[in-house]
Specification:
It comes from Streptomyces nigrescens. 24% of the residues lie in helices and 29% in strands. The protein is α+β, with helices and mostly antiparallel strands and 242 residues long. The protein has a domain of 130 residues: Immunoglobulin-like, CATH 2.60.40. It has a five-stranded mixed beta sheet with strand order 2-1-9-6-3, with no helix packed on it. A five-stranded mixed beta sheet has the order 4-5-10-15-8, with no helix packed on it.
Length: 242
């Protein structure tokens, strides 16, 4: 009988100890959960602050026109432009009225000109402009182009999408594109392998012009002919890229 009482006592003590252990574990888990909840809440607050800070970047005065930042890896759009399906791509950031980026003057830009679809429908000169400087700068509108030895500045293509007031910010290595559309509809045509190009500002004034040579897809100088021609706005994607 004594043995029975001892066993009962031992079992009771063990049960009590187990209850205390479970209570302690539960308390620890609750505390950990509380800490985890606090940590997640703090992370959300930090993310919110970071988001606010990002939204403030690039803000400031301006004309209200959107500015697009083009990187050396392509571009993408957000905001109202993305909603309209324009300026699609990847790696591009849209800012508004940036005050810490200057206009590209031309001497920091390197150009290349590809003569596409010679003597075919859709013939054009693809102009690629790249920021070769170590600082960002912006371009706007469309390039001022005079073909060959003529004196007429090409007009903006009537079929081009609107967006001449948009500032496109070129980060170092960033690229933008324009196209000179060539039309031949009579015997009275011109021919050349060069043209002059200058950048415009938002008032339409142009900077210094540079002479550009045209090349075919193999890198060989290529002459082009035309009766009439026009030019498209600068864009972060290649026009007629097919």
């Amino acid at each position: 009988m004594r043995t029975s009482r001892i066993s009962t006592t031992v079992l009771a003590a063990t049960a009590a100890a187990l209850a205390l252990t479970l209570t302690a574990c539960g308390g620890s888990d609750s505390a950990a959960g509380a800490k985890a909840g606090t940590s997640r809440s703090g992370s959300t607050a930090d993310d919110s602050k970071a988001s606010d800070k990002t939204s403030e970047t690039g803000g400031g005065k301006g004309t209200g026109a959107q500015a697009i930042t083009a990187t050396g890896h392509g571009a993408s759009a957000s905001g109202s432009q993305a909603a309209h399906g324009s300026q699609a791509g990847s790696g591009k950031v849209i800012t508004v009225g940036s005050t810490d980026t200057r206009q590209c003057h031309g001497d920091e830009i390197s150009y290349s000109v590809l003569h596409r679809f010679p003597k075919q429908q859709g013939e054009h000169l693809l102009i690629t402009a790249r920021n070769a400087d170590s600082k960002p700068c912006w371009v706007t509108s469309y390039p001022s182009v005079i073909l060959g030895d003529t004196s007429n500045v090409l007009r903006l293509s009537p079929k081009d999408a609107p967006g001449g007031n948009t500032r496109i910010t070129l980060k170092p290595g960033g690229k933008v594109y324009s196209a000179v559309n060539l039309f031949t509809d009579s015997a009275a045509t011109h021919a050349s392998g060069t043209f002059s190009l200058a950048l415009r500002d938002q008032t339409g004034d142009t900077g210094p012009a540079t002479e550009q040579d045209t090349f075919d897809g193999k890198g060989v100088p290529s002459k082009f002919s035309w009766t009439s021609a026009d030019v498209t706005n600068w864009n972060t994607t290649k026009p007629y890229d097919f």
